Fold this sequence. Notes:
Two copies of one chain form a homodimer.
Chain A: E1 7-12, H1 20-34, E2 38-43, H2 70-79, H3 85-96, E3 99-105, H4 113-122, E4 144-150, H5 167-180, E5 185-186, E6 190-192, H6 200-215, H7 227-231
Parallel strand pairs in A: 1-2, 1-3, 3-4, 4-5, 4-6
Amino acid sequence: MAGLGKKVLIVYAHQEPKSFNGSLKDVAVAELGRQGCSITVSDLYAMDFEPRATRNDITGTLSNPETFSYGVEVYEAYKKAALSSDIVQEQKKVQEADLVIFQFPLYWFSVPAVLKGWMDRVLCQGFAFDLPGFYDDGFLKGKSAILSLTTGGTAEMYSKTGVSGDFRYFLWPLQHGTLHFCGFKVLAPQISFAPEFASEEERRGMVASWAERLKTIWKEEPIDCRPPWYFGQ
Amino acid sequence: MAGLGKKVLIVYAHQEPKSFNGSLKDVAVAELGRQGCSITVSDLYAMDFEPRATRNDITGTLSNPETFSYGVEVYEAYKKAALSSDIVQEQKKVQEADLVIFQFPLYWFSVPAVLKGWMDRVLCQGFAFDLPGFYDDGFLKGKSAILSLTTGGTAEMYSKTGVSGDFRYFLWPLQHGTLHFCGFKVLAPQISFAPEFASEEERRGMVASWAERLKTIWKEEPIDCRPPWYFGQ
C-alpha cells in the first residue's frame, strides 16, 4: 500500500470516456486506488467547466466596478471568500491533494482551452501564489504535479531536430510558468506520443507503462524545473 | 494610405474596454483605419465566445457517434460545411484577413482560455492546415500574424537570467506551434511589459510606440520562426 493516506487529484480534459486519454485516466484511478490513495477526478468536459475569466467569478460587489481588472478583483475576492463556488470547489481539491495529475491531449503545443481555463481561474493570486510568494515560494509547495499528455505528432517530430522541436520546449509555459510558479514540485512528464497512429498493442503498452510508473510514483524525485532542463546550455 | 485595401482582423481578449489592452486595441483600430485598412475586431469576451471543444461544434450527425474524436469529427464537418456557425464566422474573418493581430494579457505564459479556445476551435484541420500541409505549407500562408501582449512581470524577469526566463521561450507554442504551423508569417511580437507597475506617462509611451510601429507594419519582414530565434544557437 505504497500510497496509503495519499491524496491525488486528477484534472482530466477529454470529451470521450472511451478515448485513449480516458484509458490513461482510468488506469491511474485503478493503480492509485490499489495503493490505498484517495482519488478525486475533475472531469472538466463532463462538469461543463467554465474556462472564461469574467466578472461572474466574483460574488457580490467589486472593489472597482468602474474599470474591471480580473486579477485585482479575484485577489480581493479570494481574501474575502467571495469567489464563485466552482472555483472554491476546485481550490479545495487542490489544497487537499499531495499529487495533482493533469491528463489531456496536447492542443496547439498546450492544454485544451477548458484546462487552460481551470488554470486561469483556480490558480489565483492569494490561493496559489502571491507577490512575493512564487516559484520556490509558491503557496502549493509540498505538492507534486505531473503532466500526462498525448500528442498528435510522433516522438521524432518532437525531437531537437524534428519539425516541432524538442518536446521540452512546449512544456516550459506549463511546467515552469504555471506549476513551478505556484510552488509545485514537477515530476517528469508522461508523454504518450501519437496514439492515433499506434497499433492496438502499442497503445496497450503505453497504458501499461503509465500504470507501471505509478507503482513507484511516491519515490520519484522532481525534475530541476529551470531553463537547462528545457533548453540545455 | 499605406494600408489601402488591406484587411486586418484583431482578435481581442480583455474583459474591460477601458483597460490598457483596450487602449492598445483602440489605437490599432485608429491607426490602421487612418491607413485605409478594413478592420474587423473579434471581441471574445463581449461575444461570450465558447472556448470548449465539444460535440456542439459539429452540426448534424457524427461520423462515429460511438466514440467521439474531436479532431476527426471537426475535420469531417469542415469538409461537409457542417461546423457550428460561430466557428464558420471566425474562419471567414481569418480567410479574408491579410494580417491577424492577437491582443491579450499574458495568462500563465500563454493566452487567456477564451483565446486558447478560439485557436483550438477556429484553426481546425482542413481550414488552417492538413497532414501534410503544415508549417511553411500551412493553409494560412500569405497571411501575417502578430502577438500584441501585456505582461504582469517586468522585462527584467523575462530576460535570459531572470526568474521567468527569456520572453521568447513562452512565445514558442504560440508563434511556432500554432501560427507558423498554420503557415502564418509571424511578425515580431509587441510586448508591453508590466503596464500595471508603470506610470501613466510610461503607459502612454507604450501605446504610442505600438501606434508608431503600425505605421510601417506593411513593410516589416517576418521573424525566422525556428528554434534559433527562441533558444539561441
